[in-house]
Protein 1
Amino acid sequence: MTPQPGTPVLSLRDVGVRYRGGDGAMVEALAGVTLDLMAGEMVGIFGPSGCGKTTLLMAAGLLERPTSGAVQLAGIPAAAVATEAALRDFRRRHIGFVFQKPNLIPVLTAAENVALAMVIDGVPAAEAERRAIALLAALEAAHRAGNRPASLSGGEQQRVAVARALANDPVLVLADEPTAALDSRRGRQVMEVLRSIARERHAAVAVVTHDPRSIDLFDRILEMDDGRIVAERRPGAQA
Ligand SMILES: Nc1ncnc2c1ncn2[C@@H]1O[C@H](COP(=O)(O)OP(=O)(O)OP(=O)(O)O)[C@@H](O)[C@H]1O
Ligand SMILES: [Mg+2]
């Protein structure tokens, strides 16, 4: 699936997510979000803790079935992907996730962690490893390719997780604070790699971040509050 630049990769229509909180009361984590992410664009999502940023990524990434509204990825309604197994397969093929925590598989090396999804998809092992090393190199982590996660620093683990998210050439990349564990130079490098995936592969990239230092790399910035998108601006444009 190669998206055409300027066409929507992801469409959310009035998406709501409600959770039952610990006290039994319902929490409206997403209160009706409508959003299109276009092929080739990188969007930053900002907002206070608890405003629904992670929930938005979970709904967009088909990890959370919304309570209301509709999600469409590359023209396919998520509701039409019927079983959990089919949904998992759909995600693995089309979506790259970078979570707040790296969640690498401890018994696999960095390169094996990156290569795994490719191997599952039938890419020959040697080719998968070559691509894994190339992705790690783009993130300045190739020298750690043979190490297991336990012997990597937090920032190195996070860069491996970014490489893993990009391995299957996803049309949609969703990253939740991917630079929180990184110094500013490496944080910027991760953001630049994500942006190059948008530009070169025409993927849509959404990044939740609190980090104002990479604002100039975003095509659009969405501000969230209280489960909604409350403002949208283009960096450089008047707020
Ligand atoms: N599984 C869950 N069960 C119940 N409530 C939840 C669940 N997940 C999130 N919430 C609630 O939904 C709201 C939105 O949470 P979310 O994790 O999306 O916020 P966030 O913007 O990502 O915050 P942070 O910046 O702290 O990561 C919060 O009030 C949170 O407590
Ligand atoms: Mg969050």
Protein 2
Amino acid sequence: MAQKRGFLNHIRPRGVSEKAMSFGYTFCLGGVSFLAFVVLGFTGILLMFHYLPGEKSGYASVTTLASVIPFGGLIRDLHFWAGQVMVISVSLHMVRVVKTKSYRPPKEWNWLVGMSLLVLTLVLDFTGYLLRGSQESGAAAAVAVHILTLLPGIGRPLAQMFLGGASAANSSTLMVYVWHCVALPFLALWLQMFHFWKIRKDGGVRPL
Ligand code: HEM
């Protein structure tokens, strides 16, 4: 019971500092980032009902989805634009954190969690672009594999693990699909929950 009350107090605390509520301090950029993530989750699930991963089927299913399926184009556009909004809002949120010097102790660990979230956001945006299956996204995948293999030692295994390497286009689109639709979103969701919990643990949003 005490545990349940603790959890409820955590999601709806009794007091929030006035500064945390002031728009001019946070510009609500963390909140906007989370909202974009939620929209991405909903629209992403709807897109998964029609998307078929594969070298040729990826492009064909995206085209069918946008032109034949009712509201398919709208859902695809919403997913795309929410992704771009998230990249911009997460980057601006980081600038705000630098401006208010909120990376200093005791918030230094949450700064590192935030950095991981920024990397995850960019990787999610990039892997989404690869799933289009267009010629441009094929070229982008080839460049990514090439850049990764330039890393000494770990480059090749990383390229194999994330993008399936340079060959076997079908299995690599399946791999990118699983990263983009399952593994990375779950990791990002978990990290965001941890990020929010850590804000409270560090004393809430307030000038240091
Ligand atoms: C998915 C991405 C992210 C989400 C959803 C998110 C969400 C939030 C939210 C809702 C807050 C509360 C205050 C506010 O809105 O500004 C916050 C605070 C914070 N965030 Fe993020 N954030 C993300 C990424 C980042 C990044 C990239 C960094 C830095 C590298 C970062 C570092 C911090 C820090 C240090 C705080 C505490 C700020 C303070 O106490 O003034 N976050 N975040």
